[in-house]
Request: fold
Amino acid sequence: MRNVSKHYGSGHTMVTALDDVSLALAAGRLLAVLGPSGSGKTTMLSIIAGLLQPSSGEILLAGEPINLRGAAEAASFRRDNVGLVFQDHHLIPYLTALENLLLVPHLAGRVRLEHRQRAEKLLDEFDLTKRKSHKPSNLSGGERQRVAIARALMNDPTIMLVDEPTANLDTERGQKVLELLRGQIHAREMTCVMVTHDPRMAGQADQTLELVDGRVVNDGS
Amino acid sequence: MLAWKELLGSKLKFGLIAAAIGLVVALTLLMSAMSEGLITGMTGAKGSLAGDALVFQRDTQLSLERSLLTKDDLATISATPGVAKAYGVGHAMISVDAGGSVFDARILGLSDAFDQLPLLEGRLPQARQEAVVDATAKADGISLGDSVQLSPVGGDLTVVGFTHDRRYIMTPVFYVDMPTWLEVYSASLLGRTAGTVGAAAGAAAGDAAENTDTSPLTEQLSGGASIAAVFLDKGVTVDDLAARFGGRYEVATPQAAARAGNGMPVMVLAVDGIQVVSLLIGALVIGIFFYITTLHKTAQIAAVKALGSSNGYLYRQLWLQIAVLVTIAVVMGMVLALGAGASMPPAMAFDPGVAKWGVSLIAVYVMAFLGSLFSLRNILGIDPATALDRAEH
Reply:
């Protein structure tokens, strides 16, 4: 990110969600973003994912600026490059674990045999093979978050964006999920930005960054 | 994929949604059919008279009860340029005694024009004192082959057939030939009571042997009718015919005439109001319903969008789901409405008009799609991360 700002509204009602934020992250590195509620963490993730356009500044991927024109181009960018893990997993409740993974290639066009094989392999890596036919309501909190991470890896993303992945898990399960995530990031040489409130989780990241009122107050790299 | 999976994965939820919409659809259709049935019950016999136009006596406000045309009038009407064919229609009010049960009815005399009546059972009249009757009279105890007493004028009619949707002012119509009509009508006008009808009939039929009625009124009525139904030459309009009559007679199409007189304009206005209000409320409820149910899926829609779905894909999935749900609801609603209609007593007004039901069902689909469209548009207007955040808190 280079000098990225995001403003909502205009004039005296203007709210600044991000204020001239710059950061660089190498492949295979995990960045933890800390900050209180309303500090701009979610806005930052949304801009990197192409869900929001910055008011100024630019996002670069492998040194090249990403210029997304319109919702369709942004959706295409996400399908090809971004893996997203939400705080509350947001698995589709009426799809099985396997179908949740296959949703990613389905949205990209068509589910082929190679996609099925990849989904099965990911579920196996995440120790979820026996749970692949279960719907989210029949999975534990930790299993759901693992399925969510596996889903985010389905498109072999360059950038992984993770929002509070351990917020709804106890310490032990949270630690396991984080270890799993770190292992995948390093193995696949992905760039990962993780938003967290938990300093213990942040302490295990390769880099940290603290936001307050949209500004970087502590670049721990 | 998602639309089907969600439908199949939540059968109970969507079944209840479809049932709720189905009930609203049924209510809308029932209101339409019952109010339309009221109009049919009031005007069915008049509005379905075969012909391009009905001709009434001047200044009678297209009222079947008030109009009276003489033999000369009928001849004038038949000879008017543009009239291809004309026949007289006689109207009389009567009470019918069906073995102790007395009910109001109307008698319509038709001059050799019985083939316009759709027969449910039996046959058309072939002789004097024979009648084809609207099937709602069955509820009053009338059966095929019955001989019914006319009151107070006396005389019998034999029921030889049943037709349908031929009521007038909510009473069943007895279709008879013109001599029989004239017999009943003149007896009614003269205030005759049981035992005197046969004499009047003789005069009407011009039968010298039976002509014991010397009333000047009966002689004047002979060969006349209440109104004339006319078929027009090709290219001739009702307005053309009215112009050619030069104000001597009143003219209207059967449908327009049916909705005139007897307070019908006010009733039609009220019925149209009922139909429009019930349709508007029904369609709005369905629109709001889908607006809310779509809003409830904010998190799911936002998650799918964040995963890389295009807006077009989300619209297609949502609309496919709504199309399936509304179609199931419409079928349920129609079955319910038709079932309710079938279980109603025959005398109860119920007329499921294809056009009116079509409009109702189109409105249901349109409002369902519009409701979800506004909802989805709002959801897609928020960035998914914010939408997910809102859904979580």
